[in-house]
Amino acid sequence: MKLGESIKNIRTEHHLSQEEFGEKYHVTRQTVSNWENGKSIPDLELLVAISEDFNISMDRMLKEDKDLVKENDAQRHFGKKALLVSVFIAVVSIVCIAFFYSSYRKAIRLDYKIADQQSVNVKVSDAPLKVREGYFQVMKDETVHLFFAGDSDDGNIRVCLKNQKGDKIYEHKASEINDKEEIHLNKGEYYVQITVKDFGEGLLTYGYDFQIHN
């Protein structure tokens, strides 16, 4: 007798509907129907429970379906392996995504800084003293934080920020500056220049700290 027939005989002999039998073992009516039609079989724990509940030996229930049980167990084992492989692939994918996202964040990170303090001997001149020039790249359109602190003991210190077209984005000039601003920059290259102007002859001392970051 096939396993499906055994289950059906057990159920009908005890006047149980497929739904009632399924409730007893916490499965659906359709699952019981599949058992009885040979489309699937219960797992080992359920078979033991059925055997004990209805006092029928496992050998009798599985007399002609031992090969099917072995095949089903093999399929379950393969399913577990497939699940483990899927979980492994998912974990590797998450790690790769996290790595590439971190690399992307580093690539678009803006953290530019120039700072110095100097004392130089100068002569009176109408031309500004070029103190520092620098370039930095912005990888996407965004609002950034700009900080500039500068001072000169004679004349005015000036900071000027331009885009690659030469348009002024930010400019400030005074004998002493301490400024923080948020400015919008478009993707591209930017040029920053720091100069001192309107100074007299002699020893000129100046300092500056320019920072821009997202």
Quick summary of this structure?
With 214 residues, the chain is of the alpha+beta class. The protein contains six helices and eight strands, in the order ααααααββββββββ. The chain is rod-shaped, with a radius of gyration of 40 Å.
Give the topology.
Blueprint: H1 3-13, H2 18-24, H3 29-36, H4 44-53, H5 58-61, H6 66-108, E1 111-122, E2 129-138, E3 142-152, E4 156-163, E5 168-174, E6 176-185, E7 188-197, E8 202-213
Antiparallel strand pairs: 1-8, 2-7, 3-6, 3-8, 4-5, 4-7
Helix pairs in contact: 2-3
Describe the structure.
- With 214 residues, the protein is α+β, with helices and mostly antiparallel strands.
- The protein folds into 2 domains: 3-103, 434 Repressor (Amino-terminal Domain), CATH 1.10.260; 112-213, Jelly Rolls.
- The protein is 39% helix and 37% strand.
- It has a 4-stranded antiparallel β-sheet, with no helix packed on it. A 4-stranded antiparallel β-sheet has the order 2-7-4-5, with no helix packed on it.
- A hairpin with a 4-residue loop joins β4 and β5.
- It is rod-shaped and about 115 Å long.
- The two termini are 75 Å apart.
- The mean pLDDT is 86.
| Name of the level-1 CATH class of the largest domain | Mainly Beta
Mean pLDDT: 86
Name the beta content range: 35-45%
Instruction: Work out the helix count.
Output: 6
Q: How would you sum up the major sheet?
A: 4 strands, antiparallel
Give the helix proportion (percent range): 25-40%
Query: What pattern of helices and strands is seen along the backbone?
Result: HHHHHHEEEEEEEE
Output the CATH topology of the largest domain: Jelly Rolls
Q: What is the approximate shape?
A: rod-shaped
> How big is the Rg?
40 Å
Secondary structure category: alpha+beta
CATH architecture of the largest domain: Sandwich
Number of domains: 2
Question: Termini, distance in Å?
Answer: 75 Å
Low-confidence stretches: none
For the secondary structure, the number of strands is 8
